[in-house]
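INPUT
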Amino acid sequence: MHNFLELQEKFDEFFHQKHFPEQPASLYEPLNYFLKLGGKRVRPVMCLMGNELFEEINPDAYPMAVAVELFHNFTLIHDDIMDKAPLRRGMSTVHAKYGEPTALLGGDVMLVVAYEYLKRIDGRYLKKILSLFNQTAMEVCEGQQLDMDFEKKEMVDMHEYIHMISLKTSVLLAASLRMGAILGGAGEGNQQHIYQFGKKLGIAFQVQDDYLDAFGDPEKFGKQVGGDIMSNKKTFLLIHALETAGKEGKKELTSLMESDRPDKVEKVLAFFRQCGIDAWARELKEKYIREAIGHLDEIAVTSVRKKPLTDLMHYLVQRDK
Amino acid sequence: MHNFLELQEKFDEFFHQKHFPEQPASLYEPLNYFLKLGGKRVRPVMCLMGNELFEEINPDAYPMAVAVELFHNFTLIHDDIMDKAPLRRGMSTVHAKYGEPTALLGGDVMLVVAYEYLKRIDGRYLKKILSLFNQTAMEVCEGQQLDMDFEKKEMVDMHEYIHMISLKTSVLLAASLRMGAILGGAGEGNQQHIYQFGKKLGIAFQVQDDYLDAFGDPEKFGKQVGGDIMSNKKTFLLIHALETAGKEGKKELTSLMESDRPDKVEKVLAFFRQCGIDAWARELKEKYIREAIGHLDEIAVTSVRKKPLTDLMHYLVQRDK
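OUTPUT
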């Protein structure tokens, strides 16, 4: 059994190779640039962990993990175009540095290369894994579309928001674990539990992300606290506040959000605290963590094999924070 | 054996089904719109023809042909974004009608659905076909990138141009035939000949396209004659003219291209005729047709089986025109 850092190192060793041809450099160099920006490689490590939960690591898990990481990077490159984002990890995005057409085409070809890595998987597992990968890829695109749709909508209810967040971020975490489990020979029941563990964990992570953007310690958070409030982003916090504040409260919050007063963030945070949104969000995160743990408990392998996944969970979502 | 129209009808019957989920309609409806714009379905028919050259049509040839057609449409949607094209087949392009983000994301998801169709192929052939499909998809992206690079380059030589055109348009025709041949159980030699037949045919078609844009009958051509000259597009004709016109001629042609005089098209055409570019282009097309036929001749099946491919060739490239 290996822990997160060990698997990250194993993956990096394998990932540190040429993924693209040399020419035309105008197409492939921007992709090498983007991959060098780094990242925690959470998804490929989850592929390896899902695999090792059931069996010693199958050599095919490495190309599969590369496929997942390339897919994730493809979505980042294209999302950055759609969001007109100038920076990613403190560096220029691909379209900002090389132009939109190259970023678009580069993302496309990165997706094709992801499938070329998937193709290496043994024929016994290939179709099952392709199915799950395709289904997940479609869902991730659907999540991004819903996210864009929601920006134009006045009201989004909690049910819709959780659905969107699940598609946009959770299903890829869930599928990474399950793809590993398939390669490890897991049965259908165990596969479903590991998938649900990943999905619930992903939602808990997103609740935490929304929470920290509002209530996080600016020193530790790394991003500007209050950014979501400044940009009127629909988050777990805002949606719940609008749903529970009552008619007058809703009016007050809406008018605060629409204003550009200098103390907007401060005022909205005070409003959130007054309604107990901070405590509610901590409890919501706890609820998803408990559900995730429930699914992990149901997986029919010895507890010791589950340790890396429990550690991963604590790494991604800090409890009581 | 079936001819082009029969195979087109068979394909359309299979293609006329839902390829995408209902929801979110904001993502999938634009794709249904685009597919309804139609097209000659040349590539999927080539999948079926490549298959029937060797064997009765394998049922897996239909989902494979759908994958190729969806891939082709994905490239059109994304190319239209890159080229900022407002119209395709006389109708609004996806990005013009639904916005760039949706066109980008819709293209992405269409590519994923193409892979979902490929997944249906029998395990005996799946990896070989995925390999060829992935290789081809990468080449098509490379061709599009080179095409964009060439727009910014002052001089492009004939060798580079033929390389770009092969990647951008010919390899997908060639691969469609070869994917069909793989499903038909063709050996390596036959596969290579059918691939080269498609590739040479594709280049001949592009020479013809460049030729007709300059010298075609406006009544029959369907597009504005002289469009390439108006937009200073690098074509077989222009590149050859610049390479062979001598120092003075090159100067004259360059200054004509850079001008926006009302008789620019007329003057450039006169220049082309004076240098014999029209006759040269007809001969170049003939040369590629002869090479295509040479590869078809080498395929070890009875002549009668080759008839649909010969007819397809005459449909795509008219000789002595």
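end of record. Chain B has a mean pLDDT of 95.
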